[in-house]
Amino acid sequence: MTENGKGHNAWPYTDVPVNIVGWAVKNRSTLQWTDNSVDIHTGILDSGGAPQ
């Protein structure tokens, strides 16, 4: 959401730090790694079938 170091379309931030603490997937085989570096939640789906 940044353009030339400034917020795009009135977006007030030029940087948003993020920490990934887990992944939600329908099927574990869709991920391309096998270690346990991040929590992986499988098979927990919402009413539309999307992983949560």
| Helix content estimate | under 10%
How does the major sheet shape up?
A: 2 strands, antiparallel
Order of helices and strands: EEEE
Our measurement of the CA-to-CA distance between the termini, rounded to an integer number of angstroms, reads: 25 Å
The structure class reads mainly beta
Widest β-sheet, arrangement of strands:
1-2
Rg from alpha-carbon coordinates: 16 Å
**Spans where pLDDT lies below 50 across 5 or more residues:** none
Mean pLDDT: 83
What's the shape?
elongated
**Assembly context of the chains:** single chain
User: DSSP helix count?
Assistant: 0
Number of strands: 4
**Beta-strand share of residues:** 15-25%
Your description of this structure?
The chain is mainly β. The chain is elongated and about 40 Å long. The mean pLDDT is 83.
Give a quick rundown of the structure.
The chain is mainly beta. It has strands at residues 2-3, 6-7, 22-25, 39-42. Strand 1 and strand 2 (6-7) form a beta hairpin.
Entry keywords:
52 residues; mainly beta; two-stranded antiparallel sheet; two-stranded parallel ribbon; elongated
Topology readout:
Layout: E1 2-3, E2 6-7, E3 22-25, E4 39-42
Parallel strand pairs: 3-4
Antiparallel strand pairs: 1-2
